[in-house]
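Listing S7. Sequence submitted for prediction.
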Amino acid sequence: MKFTSLTGRCLLVSTIVFWLCSVAIPSWAQQPPLSGAGMTKAGRFTQSYDWYEGEHRKTAWLNPDLIAEFHTGAVLESPLSGLYPDAVVLEQHGENIRIWRLPVGIDTGAVLDNLNSRVDHAVKYSPVFHDAPGPASRIRALPGNIIVYFNPEWDRKTISQWLAARELLVVHRLANGSAAYVLKTGPGMEALELANTLHDTDGVNAAFPDWWHETVTR
């Protein structure tokens, strides 16, 4: 009888743990990756990208199957679903952000170039990255814009001249410092590449993308 009772308890505990894990991990993370490109056989991402927050190097891993869609206005029918009807929405974050999974065999980079070149500025698209090489790690994406911290000894006139020389536009100045600005870029890799270019520039203390990322932890 004691053995039977202990077995029953173990089964109950196992069922509860399985249920909790299923709730904690989002649907896209539970599904096996579709693409062979950019993945190991064990389902680990192989393509990584670096950026810098001050002197600290950060790394994110590209998910070759997913695309992030950002709506800056009212959410209407997605342009992505019209162009790629086999794509499916895996996650909805708030009212204006969707995570899409593309069908097998479609080049994510080509899709992003196509979408960002033909849709209006109310809808933006980005690759999806992970904070670790596995698909269950937190995701992040690049809706556009970068954050730049200039030399605090620079005045606004010096900063304005620096920006004008590079034809960079200011979205707004951050409230936590007169030398910290959000600069305008397109979505996706453009933001990451510009931030990495500027981070080594004289007069720039830090430059990094204005990332969107999940607010939940796993």
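Caption to Listing S7: primary sequence and predicted structure tokens for the chain studied. The chain has a mean pLDDT of 81. The two ends are 39 Å apart (CA to CA).
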